[in-house]
């Protein structure tokens, strides 16, 4: 099954790709790698999941926020690849930043929201290397930001 067909079968709605908020581009293709810039918790222009893990945001909400970041990553990837995900050979790496209190230690569980989505959409090709770290703040007050690198055909 193609990645696009799998996305449709899963009834996953991708948000409209967000435009950059500063001096950068949302994606870069270098050789056979597609780099997707950090994506925040925005859905079709609506900012969601503001706050800090360990304070106003719980782990389950944080996972949902990371999943939303993952949806934005996939949306940006599809746009960069001409409207189809079928050139994606695998998700190589995911990086997750969690806006959290100094004593919060469950960053990996939060970023699993994005990692689980990659495997859901791309199957074994969605398994990736990863980092999940805490941050004192993130842009616009969101609780999670995630970026990714894909190998493409």
UniProtKB/TrEMBL annotation:
Pfam families per record: YjgF_endoribonc
UniProt cross-references to Gene3D superfamilies, sorted A to Z: RutC-like
Domain of life: Bacteria
Domain Endoribonuclease L-PSP/chorismate mutase-like: 5-139
Xref: InterPro entries: Endoribo_LPSP/chorism_mut-like (IPR013813), RutC-like_sf (IPR035959)
CDD domains hit by this protein: YjgF_YER057c_UK114_like_1
PANTHER family: ENDORIBONUCLEASE L-PSP_CHORISMATE MUTASE-LIKE DOMAIN-CONTAINING PROTEIN (PTHR43760:SF1), ENDORIBONUCLEASE-RELATED (PTHR43760)
Record-given protein name: RidA family protein
Organism: Ferrovibrio terrae
């Amino acid at each position: 099954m193609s990645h696009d067909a799998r996305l449709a079968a899963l009834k996953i709605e991708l948000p409209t790709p967000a435009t950059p908020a500063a001096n950068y581009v949302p994606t870069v293709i270098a050789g056979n790698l597609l780099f997707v810039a950090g994506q925040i918790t925005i859905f079709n222009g609506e900012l969601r999941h503001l706050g800090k893990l360990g304070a106003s945001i719980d782990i389950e909400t944080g996972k949902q926020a990371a999943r939303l970041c993952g949806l934005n990553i996939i949306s940006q990837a599809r746009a960069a690849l001409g409207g189809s995900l079928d050139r994606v050979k695998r998700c190589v790496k995911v990086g997750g930043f969690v806006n959290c209190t100094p004593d919060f230690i469950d960053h990996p569980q939060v970023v699993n929201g994005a990692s689980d989505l990659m495997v859901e959409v791309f199957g074994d090709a969605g398994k990736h290397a990863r980092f999940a770290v805490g941050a004192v703040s993130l842009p616009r007050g969101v609780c999670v930001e995630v970026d990714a690198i894909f190998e493409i055909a």
